[in-house]
Amino acid sequence: TVSDILNDDSLEKMISHDDAFKFLKTIRSSPAFWQQKQKELMSMIRQLGCPTFFLTLSAAETKWPELVRILKEILDGDELPTDTVLELQWNVRAELIRR
After folding, report:
1. Quick one: pLDDT at residue 21?
2. What is the rounded distance in angstroms from the CA atom of residue 67 to the CA atom of residue 43?
3. What is the mean pLDDT of the chain?
4. Are 97 and 62 in contact (CB under 8 A)?
5. By the 8 A CB rule, do 50 and 44 touch?
6. For 37, what's the count of Cα atoms within 13 Å in the CB-facing half-sphere?
7. pLDDT digits (tens, 9 = 90+) for 4-33
8. pLDDT of the residue at 47
9. Among 25, 51, 60, 89, which has the highest number of CB atoms less than 10 A from its own CB?
10. What are the tens digits of pLDDT across the range 29-58?
């Protein structure tokens, strides 16, 4: 709390016990936040085993014609050439990715 930070003894205790670092755990992008996420990931690997498939998509996946073409083929059974995929409306490509 604010009173803890304003109190010199309490502030010194927080620093010496690394509580100030732990306080940042809830703030996204802070080192404490990512340390916590890393610990969660390691515990999942320990319990479930090593992942056999790991996928990371960026916010630009609608602009990847190869990805949209493959999804269209898998989900709808339609084989489209790359130039046709580029002509698909954004909402159609986004729906393929959401599914």
Report:
1. 66
2. 31
3. 82
4. yes
5. no
6. 10
7. 767 788 777 777 776 666 667 778 778 888
8. 95
9. 25
10. 788 888 899 999 999 999 999 888 877 767
Angle of the 65-76 helix axis to the 90-98 helix axis, nearest 10: 60
Per-residue model confidence (pLDDT) at position 1? 62
Place of tokens 């954004």: 90
Count of CB atoms situated within 10 Å of the CB of 11: 14
User: Among candidates 26, 50, 49, which has minimal Cα distance to 36?
Assistant: 26
